[in-house]
Specification:
434 Repressor (Amino-terminal Domain); mainly alpha; single chain; 4 helices
Length: about 90
């Protein structure tokens, strides 16, 4: 049980980091939440983008990949925005 709680804590932390990263990728690309939502397939609402960025909803992996593609993010690209510890 202790291991399960530890693993759940790790996953929750990773999910929060991913949510922050998605927001930074979107902001660095210059898209509003509404603009990005319209570019995804299927399109999603501004509210859905907000829920993903705030970590309230899980981002489907195919949407995460599309966000990276649409925003021009590659593993070698550095974010222009610094992640602040207060974002967690």
């Amino acid at each position: 049980m202790k291991d399960q709680n530890h693993q759940a804590g790790i996953l929750k932390t990773l999910w929060k980091e991913l949510a922050v990263a998605v927001k930074l990728i979107r902001e660095d690309s210059g898209y509003s939440k509404s603009e990005l939502g319209k570019k995804l397939v299927p399109s999603v609402s501004e509210e859905t983008i907000s829920a993903w960025e705030e970590g309230h909803e899980l981002i489907p992996i195919y949407q995460l990949l599309l966000i990276c593609f649409v925003c021009g993010f590659t593993s070698g690209k550095e974010s222009q925005t610094t992640i602040k510890k207060s974002a967690y």
